[in-house]
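An example makes the point: we print one protein in full, the chain in one-letter code, the fold tokenised, without further comment:
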Amino acid sequence: MCEPLSVGVHGCRRASIGAETNILIVGACPIGLVTMLSARAFGAPRIIIADVDEQRLSMAKKLGADDTVLVSTKAEDIEEEVTRIQNSMGGKINVTFDCAGFEKTMSTALKATCPGGKVCLIGMGHNEMTVPLTPAAAREVDVVGVFRYKNTWPLCLEFLRTGKVDVKPLITHRFGFSQKEVEEAFETSAGGGNAVKVMFNL
């Protein structure tokens, strides 16, 4: 679990998360959830998560999200959803993590983030996107990317050792190594639903 957690830790370092950083996470996928856990360990005081899936939002809430916002996949809903997200935050959104990487999620991130804030693109859903960069630039919103990470494992291990981060609830399914169980594990993972991290037991 240090590998996915490392993505969240690296993202938090890239976005300079601290005790005065209110955070929006777009995408309650496994990476969105480890990013939330990492941000909390870095001291973020308030974290909102938006997603299209109610089950994932329920998991995010159980893991410590301050609030969740159910959104759609429709681009025409962005303005109304950004308003709901900002109202849910009850203050400035200093940093937004886009953990999905689609045109709609990135547009939502750019519009929701406060002037002078940061958008950290973690998700890799689309290779090319058309997003409202000029209005974001006018508000001096910085965009940073996350792809690889280095020197994160010592901090991840420390977070796990001290209990500052608990990744156990993310492991929702466990399977053995028989042919039948391997096939079932992949089907469970591909099916989504309440599956977050599917693990094989040695």
Notes: The mean pLDDT is 94. DSSP finds eight helices and eight strands in the chain. Residues 55 and 105 are 18 Å apart (CA to CA). The beta strands are 23-26, 47-51, 67-70, 95-98, 118-121, 142-145, 171-175, 197-200.
